[in-house]
Design goal:
The chain has helices at 8-20, 23-30, 34-48, 64-74; strands at 53-56, 59-62. The chain contains four helices and two strands. It has 75 residues and is mainly alpha-helical.
């Protein structure tokens, strides 16, 4: 996966969701609504072709692939 082909704003949102442990923390960090955060994550999942989060009720759990992807993004 070539990271330079991805939207940097979506990567920023993704990292904020991982670091903030959910949409609420990410929304506060990047200054977007939770709806905008959700749309960015859904779009990024389509771009990378992987499910990045499991939605369990109101809780968001990062997949193993998301954690590996996060490490790639940080490098």
């Amino acid at each position: 996966m070539k990271l330079n082909a991805l939207d940097l704003n979506k990567l920023r949102v993704f990292c904020a969701v991982i670091d903030g442990r959910g949409y609420r923390g990410a929304a506060e960090t990047v200054g977007l609504t939770r709806s905008a955060i959700s749309q960015a994550i859904t779009s990024l999942e389509l771009q990378v072709g992987k499910k990045l989060f499991h939605r369990v009720g109101t809780k968001l759990v990062a997949t193993e692939e998301a954690l590996v992807f996060h490490e790639e993004v940080l490098r």
